[in-house]
Specification:
Shape: globular
Distance between the termini: 58 Å
Strand content: 15-25%
Number of strands: 7
Strand order of the largest sheet: 4-5-3-6-7
Structural class: alpha/beta
Order of helices and strands: EEHEHEHHEHEHHEHH
Number of helices: 9
Helix content: 40-55%
């Protein structure tokens, strides 16, 4: 049987993915029972911190997707150059493949990645079943302070080079504000969880509330 060729729209460089009909059916069966929560936002906003909280308190699998940035992107960071659209296009193809693999083995997944461009958020939503997005925000002062103390990962200079590329979430998007307080983030996750019944179970919400009492 000839493979199905699916064309992705909206990228500066067009990607073509070849999936057999058998794989499409398999994906539907495997993926419909799991979900993914993506925490996105500027470098230094505290996405990893927030994701680790959910992993710790709810037992979700956490995937810090910066671990899989390409060598070309690492070189750009080391030279304090912004990423090109072509770099991002290639990277998000890799990220989608990784998340789909994770969905085969984990029912609840939290992913952290900046995803600066709206077109790439749309791409992820189109290619990852049961994906929900939450934007993590913080003040510029806190972001600068965190980046200055960071050992490894993106440097302050690289973050500044990328900052102007960030496209704010659309009106009505789900947002949490990270001021560095774990308990404040838990309270915000509870509020968001009540609006996302397909992602957070009542048991998840009860666990988060219990942590506040402790």
């Amino acid at each position: 049987m000839a493979p199905l060729r699916e064309k992705q729209i909206g990228f500066t460089s067009t990607f073509h993915f070849e999936l057999t009909y058998a794989r499409i059916i398999e994906n539907r069966l495997v993926f419909m029972s799991s979900f993914v929560l993506l925490l996105f936002g500027k470098s230094g906003a505290g996405k990893s911190f927030a994701g680790d909280i959910l992993a710790e308190l709810l037992g979700w699998h956490v995937y810090h997707a910066d671990a899989d940035i390409t060598d070309e992107m690492r070189a750009a960071l080391s030279e304090h150059r912004p990423f090109t659209n072509e770099m991002r296009d290639h990277y998000f193809q890799i990220m989608v493949d990784k998340v789909l693999d994770l969905k085969r083995n984990h029912q609840c997944i939290v992913v952290t990645q900046a995803v600066y461009k709206k077109q790439h958020r749309d791409y992820l939503l189109s290619n990852i079943p049961d994906l929900e997005l939450v934007c993590v925000q913080s003040t510029e002062g806190l972001i600068s302070e965190r980046l200055s103390k960071r050992e490894g990962g993106i440097s302050s200079a690289s973050a500044r080079a990328l900052s102007n590329d960030f496209e704010a979430p659309e009106e009505g998007a789900k947002v949490i504000k990270n001021n560095g307080s774990k308990f404040d983030l838990i309270r915000q996750f509870i509020n968001i969880a009540q609006k996302m019944p397909n992602t957070f179970s009542q048991q998840d919400i009860a666990k988060l509330r219990l942590c506040l009492r402790g």
